[in-house]
Specification:
99 residues; mainly alpha; two-stranded antiparallel sheet; 5 helices; 2 strands
């Protein structure tokens, strides 16, 4: 009986995840799950204006998935290879071309 309940719980979780992955607008709780952030951290991000969000009636907070994706992918860090390439190009342009 426990095994059946465990499987049902897992199926329920999978259905919720599937439903969440198809929504374009997420509520606050769904956004914490999607972003893998604690509620308090997400509140800090919204109060500081760090993350884009909507308050249509001035109370509940909603998020647009595409904007969350853009936010997640912001502030990209360059790889060591990219930094080395930029430095090499800079040296060539400045006339110090040999390594």
């Amino acid at each position: 009986m426990d095994a059946i309940l465990d499987r049902l719980n897992r199926l329920e979780e999978l259905i919720k995840e599937q439903s969440l992955s198809q929504k374009e607008v997420l509520n606050f709780t769904e956004a914490t799950i999607y972003l893998e952030l604690s509620a308090s951290h997400l509140y800090k991000l919204t109060s500081s204006g760090t993350i884009p969000f909507y308050k249509p009636n001035g109370k509940k907070i909603y998020f647009k998935r595409s904007e969350l994706n853009e936010w997640l992918l912001s502030n990209r860090q360059q790889t060591t290879t990219e930094i080395e390439s930029i430095a090499e190009n800079f040296k060539i342009k400045k006339g110090g071309g040999q390594s």
